[in-house]
Amino acid sequence: MKQIFLESHNIKNQCSGLGQFNYHLIKGFYECADDEFKFIVHAKNIKGLKAEFGDFFKYQPYFSITRYRYLRLPNKYTIWHSMNQNTKVEPRFEMPYVLTIHDVHFAEEQDSDEKASSVKRFKEKLKRANAIVYISKYAQKATHRHFDTSGIPEYIIYNGNPMADTSIPENYNPELKISGPYLFTIGEFVPRKNFHVLLEMLKYLPDYKLIIAGNSDRPYLQKINALITELSLEDRVFIPGKISETEKKYHLKNCEAFVFPTLKEGFGIPIIEALSYGTAVITSDNTSLPEVGRSFATYWKHYEPEYMAQKVLEGIDRFQDQEFVENAKKHAQSFSWKNTAKQYLEVYNDILQ
User: Fold this and answer.
1) Among 35, 57, 87, 348, which one is least packed by beta carbons within 10 Å?
2) Which strand (E) or helix (H) includes residue 61?
3) Could you say which DSSP state residue 235 is in?
4) How far is residue 145 CA from its own chain's centroid?
């Protein structure tokens, strides 16, 4: 039986895009139930994974010391799959190596020791790789712009949609309930998410409130809070921090629009999550976002506040057409984690031929 090692320790943070990717791809492998492969899941919280997936997977406990060359895992596998380009955990021995690239944002940062270290680590991954999988055409183009991948087989496999099940428990009572129409967004509180431009936009949307959810334990929160105070938005902007999946579903369904002014994305899962509910999506016209949202999202070309507000109203108006709403839902549901997992199985077989 072919043993596939999944370097998936980022699964621990499922409030991040990488954590979501690791969890849902692993779940996709579980749903495929292919007897040809035995997967070894590398994770810290093995107990929680065993409770959900039982003995379908083998589990390798994650310890941070395995990031160091002489303390790497002593095992050899049929294939090592590095599930994101940033992980520092690498195999001790040579073996077939699959690399998933979500983005190369680090290559576009200002020069620094940290950037140099990231670039060096990434180039070492490229030298190991027998196959590269990009999560979007944009991710592939960005990688080619900065790195030489010639001679390495390449694939584009889109992420699936985590909102395959859009149901919400009957009579669910959200922890944060907003009276009146509101906008919703979610993500890590880092500068590239660009949340602060939404606050300046609210001046031109006086009837709307705003929820910004996600891991807010970041320095960027200080900038957000300062701007809320400066613009006197304390009663219109709400920052609940990390929220449950059910809470996220509730707000995706009940908000007037999902607003996502991010500056850089490798894919943009929140877009398809919102479209799954037939909710209007207004997002940035950059990186992978038009590739994922297609004609169903409304796009900001720049971030002038009044213009942004006009685009929000335009996006909401488009979703008054029920036929358009149903087509948006179908588009969102066309992204399937089970299909994504099947395509990865094909990659594994390709490099073993």
Assistant:
1) 35
2) strand 58-61
3) T
4) 22
pTM above 0.90, yes or no: yes
Antiparallel, parallel or unpaired: β 58-61 and 298-300: unpaired
Enclosing domain of residue 232: 182-333
Residue 81 lies in a domain: yes
Residues 271 and 306 in one domain: yes
Q: Of 344, 342, 338, 337, give the one whose Cα is nearest residue 160.
A: 337
Query: Cα angle vertex 351, ends 70, 35, to 5°?
Result: 90
* Rg of the chain taking only CA atoms, in angstroms: 21
Do 18 and 156 lie in one domain? The reply is: yes
Count of other CB atoms within 10 angstroms of residue 341: 21
CA distance 129 to 347: 12
Q: Cα(353)–Cα(220) distance, rounded to whole angstroms?
A: 48
Instruction: Pull the structure tokens for residue 189.
Output: 């509180």
Edge to edge, the sheet with strand 182-186 lists 237-241, 209-213, 182-186, 257-260, 280-284, 298-300
Question: What are the b/e assignments for 32-61, b being 16+ CB within 10 Å?
Answer: beeeebebbbbbeeeeebeeebeeebebbe
Sign of the CA dihedral running 343, 346, 350, 352: positive
Same domain, 194 and 129: no
Q: Where are the beta strands (DSSP E) in 222-337?
A: 237-241, 257-260, 280-284, 298-300
In tens, the pLDDT along 93-105 reads: 999 999 999 999 9
The SS3 assignment for 57 reads coil
Token pair, residue 57, equals 């997977």
